[in-house]
């Protein structure tokens, strides 16, 4: 009897652009720029999750955000306006070094304003900045742990068998080895690109589900948290584009007995970080307990529907319908790190935000409840 044919694993689908010759590209990237600067303007589109970008030439290197001109784009092509009145304004708010084109070129994060110069619906930064300015004396610090999943362009998790599943979870978290860590080249490239750009990235690790990773941004004060996380996400999308794979921030990319993806948010104030801070932390948690439904609505772009797939009470999550807190408890809504419990000061971790959350509204919600002591189902309007 003839032996069975060897098992053939279908190649992971990759994008056509990843097959272009990068060495050929490099000979052009090495050309001098003639004293000009390329500024890549980045903004959040009408989905509240997608990022868009386009480049303009500047005559000299900008030294501050104030040196950057306003710009515009066609909002009818980004789910942000009608075609009959489509111009939207791009307002530069944060500037970073460009790790792809390198110095003196820039990445420029922008807010989006409508034709009448009011904030676009998905411009959540505008209100967040106002709220942060009200509590600046409290020096709110944030650190966000961004989980994500690497996929082929066919939507299949990177490195997974084409007609099945890898072995069950257990050996993949913080793992090393070709059979356990899928896509480390992407992770390393993203990390270095963030450091070059000036993004406040503070760590990275492989996550519990294979092809799932995490990077951490922070500590950042106030509005800087959202700015740095959004730019880190953009850089990750761009790095993945070069490698021909896709990054997903879906909170539950694979159904069944697999971990979801969150964006655990660490929060502290000046009082929490000082002696006796644990009492301040406990008071904040008490306020959060009374406002659970408000936070759940703020913690994913679909008002809690995305998180409902993830926050099941299993796979290191709390139940979406119940608020809980505990020391070193990864199944709670709020986790107090063990060291904080011992030192009686520090910070707490809100484990509810989804991987695709908007960091502006997450950080704003924490400030509203814990510092402005808001109550009820809706945020207060301070413009009146």
TrEMBL record:
One GO CC term, this protein: mitochondrion
Keyword Mitochondrion: yes
Domain spans labelled GS catalytic: 124-384
EC category: ligase
Location of the protein in the cell: Cytoplasm; Mitochondrion
Keyword Metal-binding applies: yes
Record's catalysed reaction(s): L-glutamate + NH4(+) + ATP = L-glutamine + ADP + phosphate + H(+)
Cofactor: Mn(2+); Mg(2+)
Highest rank taxon of the organism: Eukaryota
Family: Belongs to the glutamine synthetase family.
PANTHER family in the cross-refs: GLUTAMINE SYNTHETASE
The protein's name in its UniProt record: Glutamine synthetase
């Amino acid at each position: 009897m003839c032996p069975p044919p060897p098992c053939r694993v279908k190649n992971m689908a990759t994008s056509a652009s990843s097959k272009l010759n990068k060495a050929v590209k490099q000979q052009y990237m090495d050309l001098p720029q003639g004293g000009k600067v390329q500024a890549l303007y980045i903004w959040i589109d009408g989905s509240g999750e997608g990022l868009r970008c386009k480049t303009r030439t500047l005559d000299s290197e900008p030294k501050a955000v104030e040196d950057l001109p306003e710009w515009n784009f066609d909002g009818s092509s980004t789910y942000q306006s009608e075609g009959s009145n489509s111009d939207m304004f791009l307002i530069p708010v944060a500037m970073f070094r460009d790790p792809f084109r390198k110095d003196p070129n820039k990445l420029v994060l922008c807010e989006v304003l409508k034709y009448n110069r009011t904030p676009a619906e998905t411009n959540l930064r505008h209100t967040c900045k106002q709220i942060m300015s009200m509590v600046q004396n409290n020096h709110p610090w944030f650190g966000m742990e961004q989980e994500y999943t690497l996929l082929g362009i066919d939507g299949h998790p990177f490195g997974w068998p084409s007609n099945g599943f890898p072995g069950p979870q257990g050996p993949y978290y913080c793992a090393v080895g070709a059979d356990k860590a899928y896509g480390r080249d992407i992770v390393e490239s993203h990390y270095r690109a963030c450091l070059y750009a000036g993004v406040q990235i503070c760590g990275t690790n492989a996550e519990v589900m294979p092809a799932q990773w995490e990077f951490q941004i922070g500590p950042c004060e106030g509005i800087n948290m959202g700015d740095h996380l959004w730019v880190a996400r953009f850089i990750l999308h761009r790095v993945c584009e070069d490698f021909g794979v896709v990054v997903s921030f879906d909170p539950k990319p694979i159904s069944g007995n697999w971990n979801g993806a969150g964006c655990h948010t660490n929060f502290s104030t000046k009082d929490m970080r000082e002696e006796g801070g644990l009492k301040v932390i406990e008071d904040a948690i008490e306020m959060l307990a009374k406002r659970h439904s408000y936070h759940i609505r703020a913690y994913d772009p679909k008002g809690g529907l995305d998180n409902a797939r993830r926050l099941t009470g299993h796979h290191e999550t709390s139940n979406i319908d119940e608020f809980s807190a505990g020391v070193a408890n990864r199944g709670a809504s709020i986790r107090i790190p063990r060291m904080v419990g011992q030192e009686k000061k520090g910070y707490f971790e809100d484990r509810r935000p989804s991987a695709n959350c908007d960091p502006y509204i997450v950080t704003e919600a924490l400030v509203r409840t814990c510092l402005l002591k808001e109550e009820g189902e809706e945020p207060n309007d301070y413009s009146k």
